[in-house]
Design brief:
Helix content is 42%, strand content 2%. By secondary structure, the protein is mostly helical. It folds into 2 domains: 63-160; 165-331, Pectate Lyase C-like (3 Solenoid). Strands 1-2 form a two-stranded antiparallel sheet. A hairpin with a 3-residue loop joins strand 1 and strand 2 (29-32). The N and C termini lie far apart (113 Å).
């Protein structure tokens, strides 16, 4: 058997392989191509496979769109699975809290977990017809994305048990637009809670801890806020008609455009409080309150000379030592 053709063919193959690993530099010089670049470009980059889907090497129909649709479907399935898994975990924890609300002893602990569960991050929900949502879900910053149904479920749970929330720990809970009318929140800790637009009419908030709470546009008609700590609270446009704020701490509270019709401000500390443009505030209400030079009062109270004199006397009367004496009496 003549082996020469076979050997010659092997030599040709070796020469072709060798030539493929070199590149021409100038007219007559050659240098060896970097091995890594050669392997990545030809074998591992995947560019050749994608290119062949667009421009097949033979006379075949391009399959790029089919390949792209399959790839997108796989990515969507992966992202959707991650989202659903996270959502199931949040719902499981939320339902655990709901199950504990029926027990008086466990309710305090359960309420303290509401904020943590409401703020568990989750991916942006991917939608098959919205490719951008899939991209956001995979590569976007999802640290501030919250699971809406979970937030609403726990908000509704608080509303359902609003008559038994004495001393509850609801710090930083999301209770926007919650129906808490007539709720018993006496001594409850609502530090930093979001109560924008909440209905708190006739609610019992005696000595509740409401520091830095967001009560914008909240309805507090006839609410009992005696001795409540509202330090730094945002009460812009809140409706405080006939609310009882006796002895409340309203230092640095924002009461701009708040409706204070017949609100009881007796011994309320208004140091550094912003009452600019507050509505229906009268001199008789302020005569019983503790106001200071740092208190920002509505402009309409300074219109009459007689009223200016009364306000000046009130500011001078309620000195820091006077408030200290009242504070000691309350404690």
């Amino acid at each position: 058997m003549d082996l020469r053709p076979i050997l010659e063919q092997k030599k040709v193959d070796e020469l072709r392989k060798l030539a493929g690993d070199f590149e021409i530099v100038g007219r007559s010089r050659m240098r060896k191509k970097p091995l890594i670049d050669s392997l990545l470009a030809r074998e591992f980059s995947g560019v050749r496979a994608i290119w062949e889907h667009v421009w097949p090497p033979e006379k075949k129909a391009p399959t790029f769109m089919v390949w792209l649709f399959g790839f997108y479907t796989a990515v969507f399935g992966l992202t959707s699975g991650i989202y659903e898994n996270r959502a199931d975990r949040i719902e499981l924890r939320a339902r655990t809290i709901i199950g504990q609300m029926g027990n008086d002893d466990a309710r305090r602990v359960a309420c303290g977990q509401i904020h943590a569960v409401q703020n568990m991050p989750i991916l942006v929900k991917p939608e098959f017809r919205n490719p951008w949502s899939v991209v956001q879900s995979l590569f976007g910053d999802n640290r501030d994305t919250r699971y809406g149904p979970g937030v609403e479920l726990l908000r509704d749970t608080v509303v359902a048990w609003k008559k038994k929330l004495q001393g509850a720990d609801l710090r930083k809970a999301d209770l926007q637009r919650a129906d808490l009318g007539g709720a018993d929140l006496q001594g409850a800790d609502l530090y930093g809670a979001d109560l924008q637009g909440a209905d708190l009419r006739r609610a019992d908030l005696q000595r509740a801890y409401l520091t830095k709470v967001d009560l914008q546009r909240a309805s507090l008609h006839l609410a009992d806020l005696q001795g409540a700590d509202l330090y730094g609270a945002d009460l812009q446009r809140a409706r405080l008609l006939r609310a009882d704020l006796q002895g409340a701490d309203l230092r640095k509270a924002d009461l701009r455009r708040a409706n204070l019709t017949e609100a009881n401000l007796q011994r309320a500390n208004l140091a550094e409080a912003n009452l600019t443009n507050s509505e229906n505030l009268t001199m008789s209400q302020l005569q019983d309150a503790c106001i200071y030079q740092s208190t920002k009062l509505p402009h309409y109270l300074w219109d009459e000379e007689h009223e200016r004199a009364i306000l000046a006397d009130l500011i001078l009367t309620h000195s820091e030592s006077e408030w200290r004496r009242i504070d000691e009496w309350e404690n």
